[in-house]
Write a structure and sequence with these properties.
Length: 185
């Protein structure tokens, strides 16, 4: 029998493959997979509930994939709750996963009340350093920026992202941050 983590991972991948996906398949390998990787690393370092952070890592942006980016932390909670109930996942654990998803956005000032929620927020931010090309794509395609404007905006985004990280996450991502700053110089 497959684990709930694997069932959820497959659900998210299938949603990304659908023609109705707001961003196509690309977010799955370029964003969801790195977020999951960093969640597992941080959960191991911080003795967090690995199952909660893994499920939250796969579901954290499902609202964007299905409904679009605006308020995806809210729609993602609703989608996640329905999906996890389909698998008879325990209600207390659903609540924990939903809190991680609800509070993961760096642009929203939502208090993170668990180490698992902080891990997801950190991992989401850390993934920026694995996909700088994707940041440029978003700047060009979705924000209509020119090259110099995109360089300036992305450099600042990476600095802001790095400064928001917990000390443990900052230690892990520091070599990629320094490499990015060298390239943007």
């Amino acid at each position: 029998m497959e684990s709930v983590v694997e069932l959820i991972r497959r659900f998210v991948e299938e949603e990304c493959k659908k023609p109705s996906s707001k961003y196509g398949y690309e977010p799955y390998p370029a964003h969801f997979v790195p977020v999951n990787k960093y969640c597992k690393i941080l959960a191991g370092k911080l003795n967090a509930d690995i199952e909660i952070v893994e499920i939250a890592s796969w579901l954290h942006d499902i609202g964007s994939i299905i409904d679009g980016r605006e308020n995806h932390h809210i729609s993602g909670c609703e989608i996640s709750e329905r999906k996890l109930r389909e698998f008879d996942y325990p209600e207390e654990k659903i609540r924990q996963v939903k809190h991680c998803i609800f509070s993961h956005r760096g642009s929203k000032n939502i208090k993170r009340e668990s180490i698992e929620a902080q891990i997801l927020a950190d991992a989401d931010t850390m993934s920026h350093f694995d996909n700088i090309g994707g940041l440029f794509n978003a700047a060009f395609v979705f924000e209509n920026m020119d090259e110099l404007g995109a360089q300036k905006a992305i450099r600042q985004k990476l600095i802001n992202s790095y400064n928001k990280l917990s000390p443990e996450a900052r230690d892990i991502i520091k070599p990629k941050f320094e490499a990015a700053m060298l390239l943007f110089r």
